[in-house]
Amino acid sequence: MTDTKSSRIYFGGVPVDRHLSVRIRELAASVVTELSTQLSAYASLPEEELRGDITQTTRTCIRLFTHMLRTGEPPAHGQLRELRESAGQRADEGVPLEALIDAYHLGAEVCVDRVIATVEPGDLPAILTVQRLLLRYLRTIISEVSAGYLEARLTAIHEEQDARRAMLSALLAASPAEIAARRAAVRLPACYAVISLEIAPHPDELNPAVDALVAARRKLRRIRTELEGGAPAVVLHGLSPDGGLVLVPLDDAVGARPTENLAERSWGALSSLVGQLGRAARAEITGGVVPARPDAVAPAARLATEICQIARASGRPAGIYQLGDVAFDYQLTRPGPARDYLASRLQPLANRPDLLETLRVFLACGLDRRRAAGRLHVHPNTVDYRVRKASALTGLDPTSSDDLPMIHAAFTAHAADVGGLG
Question: Any idea where the PucR C-terminal helix-turn-helix domain is (predicted)?
Fold first, then answer.
């Protein structure tokens, strides 16, 4: 029933707000017991916290709802500051947001169950009114609690990212990284896989009807999500939409010398990781990898970048490569008359970048004209024409088993001349 002289709501002849106000301590204790029993995130919290901050916040929630029952108005923004701050503390403690929201609904359920026992047959209109007010109350506080939680999480994420960027910078500057690692709460591993990546454009980046910047950011976000969520250890990275560096901790590197191949298990995991990144990005990714101790990350990063550039310049398909995979090509990038000669074999294409790029992509696609056409966004017949034209100008036929190694070597030497490799 409801009071005809006021807006107060009655169960069993007693104002519902009074049912709650006289039982705040008892109800709060019951709610906290249910939280620690039914929600694993709360069961793992210290007993002192449950009986302290959590209990106090629960009492505040009951008082605010009691006030709403008495006045019909939801809590004002200023009255919710305590709940917002409490949500931020739960975020800092690692309590999932879904568990936090579940806790507020569970608390409401416990309180309603207690007062509903006092209803009488004529109280149905009052029950419906309380239900509407409760839904409105939950909507108000859940909005505030979620905002407080997310604000704290974003602050923590930004601080964590800044600390990890500082750690990466220290490693790349060959500076002692122990202090930066402590600030980032990251344990320095015995060895890193230092990976240099080149990321091809997503098809949307090449579509004039799509904002290329937005497409590139979406691609990069998917790559970062895959890196940060799929690796068992903390991965450091400095990436742009075109590529960058990634440092993956290793637990079984053999000697951590750049001239050594990675252990089979690590190599398999890294190959799988780069494949996953490519699928997440929906773009081809080429990488060069070098194992290195933390104090040798800087030179390893330079070598990994060279390996990546050589793999791409020599027409190899997307994937990850070690020094041993490109040793011949790497040596070709060292200055000397042989490199000059090889680079000169592509000189006839200097004024035909369309032919040069088509030939490079044709090699990267394993001489598959249809795949190359898809990469270049042209008709397969156009690929055939350009390859024939390039062959006529250079005297090198990519479909010839005798000429193919020379073409790969020529591309490597040409890339060294153009890109400054070696």
Answer: 355-412
